[in-house]
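Work Package 3 (structural annotation) set out to generate three-dimensional models for the target panel prioritized at the project kickoff. During this period the team completed the workflow that converts sequence records into discrete structure tokens, so that structures can be stored uniformly alongside our sequence database. As a representative example, we reproduce one entry of 185 residues exactly as it appears in the project archive.
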Amino acid sequence: MNNLNLITVNTGQKMAELFARIELYEIYMECFAQPPYEEVFTADEVQQLFARYADKGLIILCMDTELDRCAGFLAAVPLTADEEVAGIAANHGLNAADYWFLEEGGVGKAYRHRQIFSSMEQEMRAKIPVKGLLSRTKTINLASLKAHKKLGYRVVQGMTQLVKYQHLSGEMRQDERIFMKFWPK
């Protein structure tokens, strides 16, 4: 990761200062406007999401120091801070207080296959006060499933969530997402 550095953001104010300068919105849309997600967001929506994540938890950004732009992002909050997901987890025997939830994660196309997600996730593990991590993805997102499996995540059988989103076509859609958990051995 020669010209790539990880930085931690833990306040909404710091995230607001960085947001436009590092082109986070552009990288976010590069990750989620393409298949398998095909979702659309405004820059304001993404900026508000990340400000909340930073205020409630942590964001790890992978920065391309040569271009002074975001190469990847990973945002996590204590699982107890996401009531809906905490409820789903409790229904599947997980104690929400033992986990943080990876709300968002992505790596820009030009930066993929360089272990960036792995590096950000390892950094997140080192900085959170609990052992467990919970993540969610589409069942058809094979790249995400493979990356998580490589890091020791396992799919929680039967644990799913219906997610509503605005599709690129403009219509509202929903699909079922699966959960994966990491718990050290």
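Residues 107 and 169 are 24 Å apart (CA to CA).
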